[in-house]
TrEMBL record:
Recorded superkingdom: Eukaryota
Oxidoreductase is among the record's keywords: no
Transmembrane segments: none
Any Pfam family hit: Na_K-ATPase
Name by which UniProt lists this protein: Sodium/potassium-transporting ATPase subunit beta-3
GO-annotated cellular components: membrane
Membrane protein topology class: Single-pass type II membrane protein
Annotated compartments: Membrane
Primary location class: membrane
Family to which this protein belongs: Belongs to the X(+)/potassium ATPases subunit beta family.
Keywords: Membrane, Signal-anchor, Transmembrane, Transmembrane helix
């Protein structure tokens, strides 16, 4: 009951016209020597993927 889910914040720096009206994929992944984040049975283990489109 003490577990608190992590919060992920993303700041997009869109600088060219090509950056807009295009679907962008953003992957956030935990990394550390004592963390498990690579398992063939669970491709989302230790990561979250966002798809965003800014118009």
């Amino acid at each position: 009951a003490d577990y608190v889910q992590p919060v992920v914040a993303v700041k997009l720096l869109l600088t060219t016209e090509e950056d807009f009206n295009t679907e962008l994929t953003i992957e956030c992944k935990v990394d550390g020597s004592d963390l498990l984040n690579n398992d063939d049975r669970d491709k989302f283990l230790g990561r979250v993927i966002f798809r965003v489109k800014v118009s």
